[in-house]
Design a protein that fits this description.
The protein is α+β, with helices and mostly antiparallel strands and 181 residues long. It has one domain. Helix content is 32%, strand content 25%. Strand 2 and strand 3 form a beta hairpin. The longest helix has 23 residues. The chain is globular and about 45 Å long. The relative contact order is 0.16.
């Protein structure tokens, strides 16, 4: 099953939004998470702390990802662990890097739609590793600064709600040899 870019759905008069969260590896399962007024206000406050600069905005994005993952695990009813074990395919609630990167990108697109990103734009997800280069294939969400610098936002290494790795995409692409972070 392919996850169609984590669709947006409008619900009710309050214009709450539902973001679809992928799990089960490669988006085998999808579950909706409602971003109602309380969550929207919390995300707005989190992102307000990042208005001063691109660096501050990336720090705020890290906090927003942590908050969103807590909402997602509440909706799913399962707290995803750090990384993903090979046996987790088709296990409801467990997420591989494809699930994690899609979920993070879904949140980033939400922030962008609502004008909460001032110093970055959301890009297509990126990948690294092909086994033959001694690196496990891995994917991440990506932000681009106004000056054209790409940044990885990778939440796969920590359990749900943990701090994502946010680093220059060029540095992220060099990592991952023999499964190292």
């Amino acid at each position: 099953m392919v996850c169609a870019a984590l669709s947006l759905v409008w619900v009710g008069a309050a214009q709450a939004e539902r973001l679809y969260v992928c799990s089960g590896y490669s988006c085998f399962y999808k579950k909706s998470v409602t971003i109602g007024s309380a969550a929207r206000q919390r995300l707005t406050r989190i992102m307000a702390s990042g208005r001063a600069s691109a660096k501050a905005e990336r720090e705020a994005v890290g906090k927003a990802v942590r908050y969103f993952e807590k909402l997602a695990t509440q909706a799913i009813g399962v707290r995803d662990g750090a990384k993903s074990a090979p046996g987790g395919a088709h296990v409801y609630g467990q997420m591989d890097c494809i699930d994690e990167s899609r979920n993070t990108r879904s949140l980033l697109r939400y922030l962008e739609r609502h004008g909460l990103l001032r110093h970055h734009t959301v890009q297509r997800n990126s990948a690294r590793g092909f086994f033959v280069d001694v690196r496990y294939p891995h994917a991440t969400a990506v932000l681009r600064t106004k000056s054209g610098e790409d940044w990885a936002v990778d939440s796969w290494f920590e359990p749900a709600g943990g701090a994502p790795d946010i680093m220059k995409l060029s540095e992220w692409k060099k990592r991952g040899v023999r499964g190292e972070r």
